[in-house]
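Hello,

Our lab assistant flagged a job as stuck in the queue for most of the afternoon. It eventually completed. Since we weren't sure the result was trustworthy after the delay, we are filing this so someone can double-check. Below is the sequence as submitted and the structure that was eventually returned. Let us know if re-running is recommended.
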Amino acid sequence: MKAISKVENKKGLSFIDLTEPGDLLDYQVLVEIDAVSICGTDLHIYEWDEWAKNRIRIPRVIGHEGTGRILKVGKHVEGLTVGQRVSFESHIPCLRCYQCKTGKSHICSNLKLLGVDIDGLFRKYVVVPYFVVIPNDLDPEEAAILEPLGNAFHALSKVDIRGKFVGILGDGPIAMFLFYFAQKFGASKIFLVGASPYRIDFAKKFNYQNHFILNYFEDNIVEIINKETKGRMLDIVFEMAGSKNTIDLGIELLSMGGKFVAFGILPQKIEFDYNQIIFKSIDVLAVNGRLLFDSWFIMIDTIKKGELKNFVTHVYEFADYQKSFDLLLKKEAMKIIIRV
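-- returned structure --
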């Protein structure tokens, strides 16, 4: 079978040939992949930035956001049936370490990530541990983006945004999920700061409560937020872009005693004014993946069928994956689905 893989120590990806899976272990599941979505992590791997070079061992089949149907289950797997549609939890915990045994399996000390530490979903068939697949009744386009949506729900669970002034720095898909659902969760004023004209326009159709959508390069962000909050500034900032500039901006925008929710992955190490964290008494809260499996239950119970299709802007065939990466690197798309 064909797979999309990182095979060379340089920018780009390649098609490779893989042997189809054989026999299953007792607690494994074989899934036939229907659709995969491209994540920001996949872009880091494609670009081969400092983070990717230090993390990825090549060759590596990429992809961790996807959906498919179960073809076969191991003899000790319960609660899953052949033909059932599933989504994938990309964090694979060991279930034995201290973190796993104390309710923190999403940050397992032996954690493996699909498409990062082990081969991922950009192929027709994949074998995974049974607890990695999440049964659902959504169509493929929606089921393929549940994993990144779970990141947004995890971020929202870190803080109480009801009645608060909230900043979302970044205009990628998870930032857009966050913007959309934060309005439902009761934020008083939301300031989404983006840099892509395409994505800023995209955000406007989700701005159903007249919140603020600002352009990083064109608007005086600090001045606008100072005026609109009457000098109070922001109670909560979600840093979703993974940029030194937005980290610095987020710290500047926070009110004394504010909360900084860190999500974006930086392509390299940075320097920042650590003393500002101390003197402003800022709480820094990191988000890594989804809470297993709290985030999944909350989001599946929250979303309505058909709701997530609004975030899918393009659908491509497997052979045309390069077009998807080109669009995303130019920030001229939101969620792109690849049919496998």
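-- support follow-up --
The delay was a queue issue, not a problem with the job. The result is valid. The chain has twelve helices and 18 strands. The first strand starts at residue 2 and ends at 6.
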